[in-house]
Amino acid sequence: MAYTEKELAKELENKKYEYGFVTDVESDVIKKGLNEEIVRIISEKKNEPEWLLEWRLSAFRKWEKMEEPDWAHLKYKKPNFQDLHYYAAPKTKKKLDSLDEVDPEILKTFERLGIPLEEQKALSGVAVDFVMDSVSVKTTFSAKLLELGIIFCSFSEAVQNHPDLIKKYLGKVVPPTDNFYAALNSAVFSDGSFCYIPKGVKCPMELSTYFRINEANTGQFERTLVIADEDSYVSYLEGCTAPQRDENQLHAAVVELIALDGASIKYSTVQNWYPGDENGIGGIFNFVTKRGLCEKGSKISWTQVETGSAVTWKYPSCILKGDNSEGEFYSVAVTNNYQQADTGTKMIHLGKNTKSVIISKGISAGNSSNSYRGLVQMNPGASNSRNFSQCDSLLIGDQCGAHTFPYIEVQNKSSRAEHEATTSKIGEDQLFYCNQRGIDTEKAISLIVNGYAKEVLNKLPMEFAIEAQKLLEISLEGSVG
Amino acid sequence: MDSIIKIKNLHAELSDGTKILNGVNLEVKPGEIHAIMGPNGSGKSTLASVLAGREDYIVTEGEVEYNGMDLLDLSPEDRAREGVFLAFQYPVEIPGVSNINFLKTSINEIRAYKGEGPISAKEFLGMVSEKSKLVELDNKLKNRSVNEGFSGGEKKRNEIFQMAMLEPKLAILDETDSGLDIDALRIVAHGVNTLKSSENASIVITHYQRLLDYIVPDIVHVLWNGRIIKSGPKELALELEDKGYDWLKKEVITE
Amino acid sequence: MEAAVSEKNSVSVFLENLDVSENTSNNSYVSEVISEAKDRLLNSKLPNKKQESWKYSKIAPWLKKKYCCSRSNEDFDISAYASTSVNANTLVFVNGYYRDDLSILRDSQNGVIIQNMTEAVDLFKDDIDKYYNKAKDASFFADLNTVYHTNGVFIKVDENVIAETTVHLLHIQTGTGTIAQSRNLVILEKNSKLDILESQLELNASDSISNHLSEFFVNENALLNYTLIQKGGDNAAIHSNYFIQEDFSKLNSNVFSLQKKFIRNNHSVRTVGTDTETRLNGSFMPGANEQFDNRTLLDHRNVRGYSEEVYKGILFEKSNAVFYGRIFVDQKAQQTNAYLNNSNILMDDSARMHSKPELEIYADDVKCSHGSATGDFDTEAQFYLQARGISLDSARKMLIHAFMNEVSGKIENIEIRDVVNSYMNERMMKLDQ
User: Fold this and answer.
1) How many whole angstroms separate alpha carbon B66 and alpha carbon B80?
2) Is the C-alpha dihedral spanning B48, B51, B53, B57 positive or negative?
3) Cβ atoms < 10 Å from Cβ of A246
4) Do C341 and C386 belong to one domain?
5) Which of A394, A432, A437 is most worth mutating to test chain B (most B CB atoms within 10 A of its CB)?
6) d(C-alpha C260, C-alpha C258), whole Å
């Protein structure tokens, strides 16, 4: 007999997180808590210039006076910010020149994740800059990229080697005081990635970073800065998986993108942080600020597949400052068990003839809550601008919630903002049709969900799309029957 | 020769207790085409759904032997894997899932069930191009989402295309002729006739006689009030076309 | 902490500036409701921009003024108001006080009770205990109304009775610095039907505010048709309607916000019964320096509810409008079918539109959708008309009419539809020159 949906939902609950294991690497951990001294230690450990320390300290002082926001459709126990470690780096004795020198434990971890670095390097031509906890371990392909003038390195290296670029652009899109988590990140960010594409250069390969949280009770504060100079192009991939932990771990990253005149940035994310167990214990708190600035005729495209984290608070946004610039947001967010997600985007239209597209596909199962929250703002100067938003929700089981909270503000008459949203469930007739063709219910659901999310998955680079499909399947396995 | 399917005294009802099938008996042997006719509401589509395993109906009595197995004991997907194919009266749309991907998944699931490895891309594509010619299915339709935006005729042709790909042992065609123009009807019938062999069998459910001009049945059954009240050679269909069903109903009542 | 104290003071200051006496009642339930509302009021904050529900509408200036409640005995010719042309039992309220001398009660019908609220509290104690205050929420203006309303009407249609004559509530506001607050209770018993027209008009009023509140109970199989027309000068209107629907009941609500300095409508529907049908429609046409804020909530609490909501706005020069439409589907409300659409046309770059359609869904077997479109009107259609020899100006007018008439076209009662259309045309002519 075919599964009933309830049976499916139950089975889904029991699906275990596959990537939950701890890498045994000796870590360099600073004691718990946050104060000016900790900020100074972090800056000193990273051998940072005085101006950057001051920048961190001013962010810290502002953060102290800020309150954690509570407007999102999320219920969770607020983290105790004094009970966290703000710096943890794998203890590597020296700089590494080849993969052979990387701790074999770490390499093994990546193999279990199905992302063998060497294979990636050899087969897919992807330059990987992966971040184990906070410090960049290894960057490959740097030399090749350097020939084109492309800079792709860890944030700390960029601070040492390209201080002018950092000083010019850091915090320009996401000011240190933008919000509570951005301020926190600005004060204590440990490492991250930096990328600069020179004028007129089309980056020949996908740039890629893998993030993992490893050290228990370690705050993770990534900082990414991507600058695409005039008429350049870059596709940047960010993927995350994290080991299983019982305490909630905090992730408060900041990503800043800058697309100068005529440039184009494609930023893709697959997020699979540990979502907590089927009873809602553990899991990552993911509070991320991602924002891009578009100058004249430029384009920024965000694509995200979000399946992990216990709590997600994330709104990759575009500030369409330059005339004729374009912003895109394609998102699939899956929540299961007790996961909560409040995610969406902001499209701020400032320049003339600016365009934006929002395609959001939410899938909720178990006891989860999945909200889309998006702002489309047509400012007075943004004449002849266009926005189209499509936000769909799919419900699996009757214990979950799916919500849509769009904010549409139009302040000039020649612009147009259109928004559509639907909520539905997987039809019994669709499942039966698949069953009748020999496809079992679980497979049928995966097929239907992938079809539902196709518009977004299609936007991902090939190798990522496959991984994302696999993730959707894993996240929803058992959820339907 | 052994039968492909043997339905004995089958009773089925809806969850609210409405009785639809009231003792159906039917035996189909390899190589045969059986037509089931009857007025609206006589239980024709219900019979098809019960055989395919749709959950909306509860079997209260009777048994169905299929290829030596208890069919009612199998899940819908296992029935399909064992070779029962239902051409839906209203084929379902599945947005975002391409026809081709859908079929490939289906074929591989069936093969896995039989302990065979997945079909090679070459063999699969060869099959697609061969079988799609059979029902003159537009190439574009193969890459579109399953049944999404298809016309009524295209959906029905797509059903027969899937049938050709899956090579079932027992095909149940539920009102496949409804809503088809004469050209489409001919194409569909051609597909069904070509697929006929001494190994398989078909049950053709229809409201009108005209389909049976193209798919010639060995036996025609009349279903009324959830029971088969008359069976006969193909000429019975013509008689029904002429006289309607009322004379039969009277016959049953006076019995 | 300091901020909180000063906010609290601001409520006290507002109430001190309010020259209106508090309500009392002999009915113990009602007097308890009043005292609870008073307690909440004193512990609340004045609506302000920091609250999500008041983010886009500037209510603050209106809460800094002094208001009094002035009973007026002025004689007017109410036939000057077009809405009185509708064949109806017209109940006239001036500044929130019922005026028997101006009201026109054309027909009385067995089973249709229309009673002054003050008297109804005594005469219909059972109904009051059962229904009064049971639909409204605990927001600032609702509590303010509970404690300080002056008067209102009690309407009850008995089981199986079809009310043949429309009931028209005509609110007229007059004088300087006045506040008008009526409190109404409408009960439709099983299988009954009622048409209500409510119109808010003004006569030489300035610096004034109204805060009318009505509760509607639509019981099994009953049908309520409701129309609201908001029109008049330079004053503010807060208007709250709370509808409760029982099994198989139907509600059609049509709201036309045509002119006022400030409008805030809080209209909410809670479907507690199964198989309900709800249609909420609205048109708004703010002009220069006007701000209209329509806030709706469709709260689906039971199975097989159907709802359809269409709100359309045309925003003229320097106007500001907000539409907030929330659809909530409870976990229990399976097989809900809910649809919401908000479209807006901006006639000028200085206009501002904020649209917030929301879906909050906890049941899986539902079909819910919303759409919102804001922008210039259809230039293709305009060009098509021009290509057929129609002047740009006429083409625009035709298209605007077509856009707005979609909502008025939903009014079943032809007389009411005609009145609404004539008010809308008049409004359009003034604004679109």
Assistant:
1) 12
2) positive
3) 12
4) no
5) A437
6) 7
Residue range C38-82, pLDDT digits in tens: 999 999 889 988 888 898 889 999 999 899 888 888 888 888 888
Same domain, C155 and C83: yes
Total domain count, chain C: 2
Q: Which residues, other chains included, contact B143 with Cβ-Cβ below 8 Å and sequence gap of 6+? A: B98, B99, B100
Q: What pLDDT, in 10s, does the model give residues B148-180?
A: 888 888 888 899 999 999 999 999 999 888 878
Q: How far apart are CA B106 and CA B100, in angstroms?
A: 10
Residues C414 and C290 in one domain: no
Neighbours of C (≥3 Cβ pairs closer than 8 A)?
A
What does the DSSP 8-state code read for residue C52?
A: G
Q: How far is it, in rounded angstroms, from Cα C24 to Cα C11?
A: 21
Interfacial residues of A (vs B; Cβ cutoff 8 Å): 1-2, 4, 427-430, 432-441, 443, 447-448, 450-455
Q: State the pLDDT confidence band at B144, using cuts at 50, 70 and 90.
A: confident
A397 vs C: CB within 8 A: yes
Rg for chain B, CA atoms, rounded:
18
- The list of chain A residues with pLDDT below 50 reads 1-21, 92-96, 109, 112, 115-116, 118-127, 132-139, 211-218, 242-244, 246, 481
Measured distance CA(A117)–CA(A101) in Å, rounded: 13
- Verify that C196 and C336 share a domain, yes or no: yes
Count residue pairs from A and C with Cβ separation < 8 A: 124
Cα torsion at A329, A334, A335, A341 (round to 10°)?
A: -10
pLDDT at residue A3, rounded to an integer: 36
Mean pLDDT of chain B: 88
Residues within 8 A of A (CB atoms), B 189-248 only? none
Q: Do residues C183 and C303 share a domain?
A: yes
Kindly state whether residue C34 falls inside one of the protein's structural domains: no
- Tell me what the mean pLDDT of segment C160-179 comes to: 94
Non-local (6+) Cβ contacts of A465 within 8 A are A457, A458
When the pLDDT of each residue in chain C is averaged and rounded to a whole number, the result is 90
Nearest to C153, CA basis, from C108, C190, C187? C187
**If pLDDT is split at 50, 70 and 90, which confidence band does C2 have?**
very low
Q: Which of A390, A433, A441 to mutate to test the interface with B (most CBs of B within 10 A)?
A: A433
Q: For residue C40, is it within any domain?
A: no
Could you give the CA distance from residue C190 to residue C246 in angstroms, rounded to a whole number? 9
**DSSP labels for A151-180?**
EEEEHHHHHHH-HHHHHHHTTSSS-TTSSH
Is residue C320 assigned to a domain?
yes
C252 within some domain: yes
Which tens digits make up the pLDDT trace of B46-100? 999 999 988 889 999 999 999 999 999 998 889 999 999 999 988 888 888 888 8
Q: Are residues C372 and C401 in the same domain?
A: no
Token output for C140 = 């600032």
How far is C-alpha C80 from the chain's CA centre?
A: 23
C157 and C95 share one domain: yes
Q: Note whether A468 and A115 are within 8 A (CB).
A: no
Task: For A210-252, write each residue's pLDDT tens digit.
Answer: 544 444 444 578 889 999 999 999 999 887 554 445 455 788 8
ipTM above 0.90, yes or no: no
- Euclidean distance between CA atoms B162 and B156, whole angstroms: 10
B97 CB near a chain A CB, below 8 Å?
Answer: yes
Compute how many other C-beta atoms are within 10 angstroms of the C-beta atom of residue A437.
25
Where a domain ends, among C331, C352, C378? C378
- Residue C285 sits in the same domain as residue C356: yes
Kind and range of the H or E run holding A136: strand A135-139
- Determine whether the interchain pair A393/C361 forms a contact, defined as Cβ–Cβ distance below 8 Å: yes
- Please tell me the total count of domains within chain B: 1
Range of the structural domain that residue C416 is part of: 379-433
